[in-house]
Amino acid sequence: MKTETTNSQIYCSSAAMRYAQVLYELNVPKEAIQKAREIFEEVPQLHDVFVNPTIPAQKKERVIDKVFPQEMRNFLKVVCKYDRMDLITEIFAAYDKYCDEQDQILKAVLTCVELPSEEQLKNMEAFLCKKYEANRAEIEVQTDSALLGGFILRMGSDEYDWSLKGRLERLGQKLTWR
Question: 144 to each of 12, 65, 117, 150, 163, how far by Cα in Å?
Fold first, then answer.
């Protein structure tokens, strides 16, 4: 199934990123941001209230004042004022990504048959930090017995395939190209 990115999706993503950058630059404590995120997750009806055009802005602002941490109120009111509360989940996700970029933290995925040792994980983290000039690498480990052995390490669009399955596929390609 092919998915197409529409102009409105691109705009929404860039709008979420702009709001995330503003939230970062406001130096709102991470605890207040996390608390706001938890409130939205625990009370999904709030989202419906904030995106409902029939509810007056003043009522929405009163809800914000009563429910959310002090440090988040002005930001949420601005998001509400410009009718972007539909993006709040995306804004939080973009904020996390932006923080990681600012702190030079990488997110990688390691797919392997058997879980790696602590030493192996530390070596992969060191490799990623050196290769991408980062301060820290966080590696999510997934298991997949279809690899037959070895591992695949993915960082962004880069992939390091040291799996037995990948090696066999490359060998097969070389043999059939002759």
Answer: 34, 48, 16, 10, 10
